[in-house]
Amino acid sequence: MPDKPRVRFAPSPTGYLHIGGARTALYNWLYARHTGGTFILRIEDTDRERHTPEAVQAIIDGMKWLGMDWDEGPIHQSDRLARYQEVAAELEKKGLAYKTTKGAEDKGEALAFRVAAAKEKVAFDDQVLGKVEFQDEVIEDFILMRSNGWPTYNFSCVIDDHDMAITDVIRGLDHVSNTPRQIMIYKAMGWTSPRFAHIPMITNSEGKKYSKRDGAVAVGDYANAGYLPEAFANYTALLGWSPGGDVEIMSRQEMVEKFTVDRVRKTASQFDFQKLEWMNGKYIEGLPAAELAERMAPFFKSAGLDPDARGREWLEKLGQLLKERAHTLVQFPKLTRYFFADDYEVVPQAAELLAKDTTPAALKAALAALEKLPEADWTPAKLDPLLREAAKAAGMGFGKLAQPVRAAVTGTNVSPGLFEVLELLGREVTLARIRRAPGVG
Ligand code: GLU
Question: Catalytic amino acids?
Answer without folding.
Answer: 212
